[in-house]
Amino acid sequence: IAIFSGLVGVIIILEPSSDGFSPYVLFAVLGMLGFAGRDLGSRAASPALSHNHLGFYGFIAVMFAGMIFSLLAKTSYVSLNMGMLIYITTLVIVGCLSYIALMKAMRKGDVSFVTPFRYTRILFGIGAGVLLFGETVTSLLILGSIIIVLSGIFLISSQTQSKNQHK
Fold this sequence. Notes:
Layout: H1 2-14, H2 26-44, H3 51-72, H4 82-108, H5 111-118, H6 120-133, H7 139-166
């Protein structure tokens, strides 16, 4: 029920019936499946693979996904100036460090403790959409986000209760 509710929240945010719907939003759904796969893989990965390796590989996978998306979207490329190169380099460094920290948290930390912090990506995503892409915050975006967070909290709390009952 919680997973289905979270999916309903995503569908509300995507507004598939609106005039502005783009088939490219399906990449967001594929991205979420990728996030889930990455999380499962990071916990199952061999301890011989360091957090640094996992974080680096995860970030490289995101870069390749971005390149594939830009090819499919037929994005026009621009030449780099020094300011843009510094910006991109900074983003790569911050992205790699973020993935390393995420891998360490997912491998070492209790998932029920780590996961609520991961919902902050919704806030950062909304902020980036508004600041960088001129998007507007709609009531459906807020409603869908609340449904996603509540379904996640429900899922985590039910798993924690189940784990405590088995002890």
